[in-house]
Amino acid sequence: MFGLGNSATTMSDQSIxxxxxxxxxxxxxxxxxxxxxxxxxxxxGKTTLATNLASYFAGLQHKTCxxxxxxxxxxxxxxxxxxxxxxxxxGVAAFKKxxxxxxxxxxxRNLPPETxxxxxxxxxxxxxxxxxDLIREADIILVPVTPSPIDIRATTTxxxxxxxxSSFRSRPKHIAALANRxxxxxxxxxxxxLFLNSLKIPFVATLxxxxxxxxxxxxxxxxxxxxxxxxxxxxxxxxxxxxxxxxIGKIREQSxxxxxx
Length: 261
Description:
Layout: H1 2-27, E1 33-37, H2 46-59, E2 64-68, H3 74-80, E3 89-92, H4 104-109, E4 117-121, H5 128-137, E5 140-145, H6 149-164, H7 166-170, E6 174-182, H8 187-198, E7 203-208, H9 211-218, H10 231-254
Parallel strand pairs: 1-4, 1-5, 2-3, 2-4, 5-6, 6-7
Helix pairs in contact: 2-3
């Protein structure tokens, strides 16, 4: 009896160790990088930026999720037009009303297995609790700005709201601004550039106003999916991609390394 008792105890201990090892592997699994594309000002190209980021990461074989909080559902419509032969992107229509049982946190975390990149498209007028919730769940925040005095003033207020939000103050995020839909060598762009350089956050890229984005969006494509895109358009994205890669690397360094055994 004594011997059997020892055997049972040994087996029990071994089971506990195995269970703990499995839990450790699950816990240490890398979390997806969540990129929030946000600005309270409408018409600044948030959806264009969000969909192009999603197509870029999907093209690199990252399992990508595009979450659409904009009631217009533009990102969701872009996904519906996307050909099945293109790199797959999982879509979440977060703007749709639910039964009340589903929270924003659940929508942002209940993702397909192995998801490594999450792009979050947001509505105009973003603020209050929704803004605070999205900031809390995000790792990186991108603020697109178009060249107009109205957009510059609105963005000033929005960035202030972001930096003063309780979620950002309790856990600061990587944040950057970029000029969107611009025509260089114009006075209004010069003013926008001066404004972005005056901010206390990085100004990382300038994306020009081109019909390539419009044509691509009609078919659920990103500019990186196009075969006949101009080299200049690809080059404009490079500073943003490099900045994102650098920040993602820093985030990974701060996260526990996954178990491989």
